[in-house]
Amino acid sequence: MFRLFILTTALLWGTCAFAQQFTISGSVQRSGSTQILPGATIALKELNKHALADEYGNFRFDKVAPGTYTLTARFLGYAEKSQTIDVRDNAMLTISLDESFQLTDEVVIFATRASEKTPTTYSEMNKQAIQKQNFGQDLPMVLNWTPSLVTTSDAGAGIGYTGLRIRGTDATRINVTINGIALNDSESQGVFWVNTPDLASSVQSIQVQRGVGTSTNGSGAFGATVSVQTDGLNPDPYAEGTVSAGSFNSRRYTLKGGTGLMHDRWAFDGRVSAIRSDGYLERATSDLNSYYFSGGYYGDKTIVKAIMFGGHEKTYQAWYGVDPATMAIDRRFNFAGAIYDSDGNIERYYDNEVDDYRQDHYQLHLSHKLSSAWNANLSFHYTYGRGFFEQYQQDESFTNLGLPNVVIGNETIESSDVILRKWLDNDYYGTTFSANYDKGNSSLTLGGAFSRYDNARHYGEVLWAEVAVNAPARYVYYDGESRKSDFNVFAKWNYALSPKLGSYVDLQYRTVNYKTGGIEDGQVPYSVTDQFDFFNPKIGLNYALNENSTLYTSYATANREPNRSDYLDGIGRPKSERLGNLEVGWKRSAQQFTMNANFYLMNYTNQLVLTGGVTDTGYPIRANIGKSFRTGVELSAAVKILPKLTWNANVTWSVNRNKDYAFINENNLPVQRNTAIILSPSWIGGSQLTWLAFPDFQATFLSKYVGKQYLDNTENESMKLDAYFINDLRMSYRLPLRSVKLVELSLLINNLFDVEYASNGYGYGGTPYYFPQAGINFLAMVTVKI
Q: Checking phi first, is residue 48 left (phi over 0); if not, alpha (psi -120 to 50) or beta?
């Protein structure tokens, strides 16, 4: 009887204890306003529990036992705030954070970022949103649901060579910076995300500015600017490990750690990553390694931070695409490395048809607070890139290799099967500087940058020849060098004309010098020397309808120079491009609902557009086309439908036209007419429907629609990418453990309904070539933080 009494008492006590568990929820916002602070960190010290404010600034702790706790909120750029709460019932809190007058890492990117005062169109992703989607795929896949953006993947599964287009413009026309320093390659102007794999694991925030934006460093933005800020100060020590695995033998291993703030002054962080994948296409393997290390001194008025990051990628080539006839038989077919017999049938594949490249980045940032109104920044950077791609070439002419024919007895041999290795070795270095003033009705930024792309050597080696040739080992059959210098100065001024009306002026002068020369592949000599002087003004107005709604308009001019491929592979002597960009929009922000509506008009003169053709290395060929334009409407919104159900959605409708485009039609007759610009869909839509099913479990249904795209500029219906509508499902569950900060299990199911589609393509000899994407596939991930 006594035992029964004890058991009953224990059960009743356990039931009461379970019943006496409460919920602490609330929101984090900027002090003195209704501006929410998504991504803020909230901690319950005694329970070792942590939460991140969602995109609406809301947070939640469940199953909190009665007691007294210390709740601490942190957000970059704001003063830390702690308060004691006595939990005896469910608690709803509003935490207001004051802006910090102490320098933070954000000051480094201030000169290249848009703000609430800037009348331009932009979207931001905080660390929380980035990590939700970071399963080891390249950074473009993380950005996939931002407005007007289309992603591409050569290997078909988001690992390896990937890319993005914004408002129909490709990566060579999108200005990308990391901590305010240009990432775009100086010669090609493109961004090769595969060179910095798993970069997303070391990123604090990303801002995507559409149109000309506020870009200052590097090549001018002709479609968008992507501003990446790497990890900022984490005041607490931490260690983190992530493992993911999934379809196509894809797997990723990431280790991170940091000291926290030591002696209130020093902090060190590091990360190493390894990513492997077989790819969706045959042999489209990826072998990627990367690292990130930083060390900083954080004084009251001074920050000194050194950063180094980089990677080594080795990918089997997958840039040839698939023609319609082959794709109908085998969607995963890859032409790269194919070796044919005398009847034209594939005999075997060369096992080392690879792209192999290393890139190391070094940055040193110095920031100092001169007074309550002024701060200054000075950064130095150096990037070292080197690598090659290797190919097996059949029946290669000795003339193209700069070699004499081989005579054996009475027979003259003019060609041979060879293995070629094509190299690029380059240095990129420079400095950026700015001084920022912010007081009263006025904020001013004065700055500039100088960079030099130097010792850039393009050369090719013959590693092997089937026929013995009279040449030294690793014979160099073409060779050339390039140099490019880029200097700019700028001034940006925000001034409040009245309590509701603000003005913006941005003036930039940029000068570019480019020189390249040598012998090209095919023994063609080349020599280019060119100089450009550009003036890029921007003006705009902001009008606050109320504390939640703002109207804005801006007009900007941008100029940019041709790239290396335009000079060597383009049609005729390329000219610099000019863009006039008008933006008109409305923004509304509240705790339960946010919305942006934007109209844009982008008028181009001498736009360098893709012709639809590619070089033998898969690089797109472009040509000046005279007058062209892009115009459209972008709508994006986020709404909290129910306490546990939120919806983020965006849609873009656009018109992208060449004016009086001249070409030769299928009847070999010259034609001139108004046509659609290549690879520019009229409709792009994205949706994220998130359900917080129960504490610590979240499910998001992700959808993406991309309209029809033409693969050339003639609007030929046989040269197009069909529209596609893709749906993914992402789920995550946080194990409620007190012994560690976080154990999270995540699952991403891509292409849930197994749609057959291609996200990219080109034309060659009148035939379209597509890059097929994977059907239904998955990635699972485990993350542990201590």
A: left
What's the confidence (pLDDT) of residue 350?
Answer: 97
Distances (CA, A) of 352 to 232, 250, 336, 460, 759: 40, 20, 10, 16, 26
Whether residue 148 is predicted with pLDDT greater than 50 in this model: the reply is: yes
- Mapped onto helix, strand or coil, the DSSP state of residue 197 is coil
Q: Return residue ranges of the chain for CATH 2.40.170.20.
A: 229-785
Tokens of 11: 């059960």
Question: Per residue in 409-442, pLDDT tens?
Answer: 888 999 999 999 999 999 999 999 999 998 889 9
Nearest to 702 by CA among 28, 220, 146: 146
Give 196-247 pLDDT, tens digit per residue.
999 999 999 999 999 998 867 778 888 899 999 999 988 889 999 999 999 9
Question: How far apart are the C-alpha atoms of 337 and 339, rounded to whole Å?
Answer: 6
Residue type (1 letter), 589: S
The H-or-E segment that residue 13 falls in is helix 2-19
- Between CA 92 and CA 89 the distance in angstroms is 10
Closest CA to 603 of 585, 586, 626, 621: 626
Rounded CA-CA distance 542/370 in Å is 29
Percent helix, strand and coil across the chain, each to the nearest 5: 10, 60, 30
Strand 174-178, strand 224-230: pairing: parallel
Reduced to 3 states, what is the DSSP secondary structure of residue 512?
strand
57 has pLDDT over 80: no
Tokens coding 670: 């010259």
CA angle 430, 436, 439 (to 5 degrees): 175
Domain 22-97 architecture: Sandwich (2.60)
Q: What's the CATH fold of domain 229-785?
A: Maltoporin; Chain A (2.40.170)
Distance from C-alpha of 143 to C-alpha of 216, rounded to nearest angstrom: 22
Bridge partners of 288?
275, 313
Surface-to-core class of residue 417, CB atoms within 10 Å of its CB (0-12 exposed, 13-18 middle, 19+ buried) = middle
Residue 171 gets which letter from DSSP?
G
- Between CA 26 and CA 399 the distance in angstroms is 74
Q: Is a pLDDT exceeding 60 seen at residue 375? A: yes
In this prediction, residue 76 has a pLDDT band, given cuts at 50, 70 and 90, of: low
Query: Where is pLDDT greater, at 336 or 696?
Result: 336
Q: Give, in order, the Cα–Cα distances in Å from 146 to each of 172, 450, 514, 648.
A: 19, 31, 34, 10
Q: What average pLDDT does range 290-306 have in this prediction?
A: 95
Model confidence over 478-492: pLDDT tens digits?
Answer: 999 999 999 999 999
| Structure-block tokens of residue 634 | 């972008």
- Residue 385: pLDDT over 70: yes
| pLDDT tier at 75, thresholds 50, 70, 90 | confident
Q: In the chain, how many H helices and how many E strands?
A: 5, 47
> End-to-end CA distance of the chain, in Å?
46
Looking at the chain, the domain(s) classified CATH 2.170.130.10 span 105-228
Q: For all residues of the chain together, what is the average pLDDT?
A: 90
Exposed e or buried b per residue across 611-646, where buried means at least 16 C-beta atoms within 10 angstroms of its C-beta: bbbbeeebbbbbbbbeebbbbbebebebebeeeeeb
Question: How far is residue 737 from each of residues 22, 47, 49, 693, measured CA to CA in Å?
Answer: 17, 10, 9, 19
Starting from the edge strand earliest in sequence, which strands make up the sheet with 58-64, in order? 58-64, 22-30, 91-97
Residues of CATH 2.60.40.1120 domain(s) within the chain? Answer: 22-97
Q: How many Cβ atoms from other residues are within 10 Å of residue 55's Cβ?
A: 20
Provide the pLDDT for residue 616: 62
Q: 105-228 — its CATH code?
A: 2.170.130.10
CB of 119 closer than 8 Å to CB of 583: yes
Q: What is the pTM of this model?
A: 0.89
Most confident of the following: 107-111, 230-234, 360-364, 562-566: 360-364
